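Known limitations

Files may contain more than one protein. Parsers should not assume a single record per file. Below, a two-record file is shown to illustrate correct handling: read the sequence, read the token line, then continue until end of file.
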Amino acid sequence: MTDFPDLKIKALVNFPAEAVGRTGINIVKQDGRFYLDLNYQDFARVSSLPPADLPNLYSLFWNVAKQQFVLVPIALVGTGGV
């Protein structure tokens, strides 16, 4: 079996060539790196939730022990289930 040689590819553009943030996402290029952050000001604020919408609403919670996000129904948050 033949070993393949190491290859270096010289591209004419830097990748990602274009980074686009949409609603609630900010993209900042700093020192040649792209950083993506949430922009909370772009999200709508609500003062109440209609009870009929509760079964259809979810939120992300950060589990520090597992170092991962967990998708949780909003209905559990209000009942003390989380």
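...continuing to the second record:
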Amino acid sequence: MIKKALVFDSSTLINLASNGLLDVLVNLKKIFDGNFYITESVEYEVVEHPINIKKFELNALKLKNLIGDCLTMPEENNEISTLAKEIMESANHTFKARFKEKEEYVHLIDSGEASCLALSRLLSKKGVKNLIVIDERTTRMLGENPENLRKLFEKKFHTKVSSSESNYSTFKGFSFIRSSELMYIAYKKGMIELGNNTLDAVLYATKFHGASISRSEIETMKKL
């Protein structure tokens, strides 16, 4: 039985593919004593759907070739699907804001992110230590500090945002890592060598392709 795993969201896989860093991901898997997981929902988002769109076809083909070798599809598909629906329902009924004299729930996550959370929860119950590899900020904040996410939405929408705090417990216990941090690890292990500014280039490339990481965080990582 595996003892640790990484669960990949669409945002990170698309980021790495767009930056030509999938080979680095393959090399990381070779030294990782565990599984790199991709759920059915994420596979649909990064392979099945975009493979029919010319703009995204190449990245979809690259990612398709990784499934079964570098990326593993979990067996608990029905369990993941059922739990993902529950998580998505809870997430998308956690915050409510007033728009044009009408209160509406704020849509937070879709099936891909929900399936990653579901798989992570199931793995944890089995004693498998795991991280969700996700670049998208909303899901991470929902798990790490939902109250800060509520305040962020108030600033973004310029209106009061209420919350169902009883839902917060649904998102406790998850651990996250971004593509930027994953590539930092790869760099430290000597897997990325392009010259003197390699780390700077890689970290900013992941930022500009969707990783929610600040410039100050990047500059701090470069000094470590």
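Parsers that stop after the first record will miss the second one. For reference, the second record is described as follows. The beta strands are 4-8, 35-37, 95-99, 102-105, 129-133, 161-163, 176-177.
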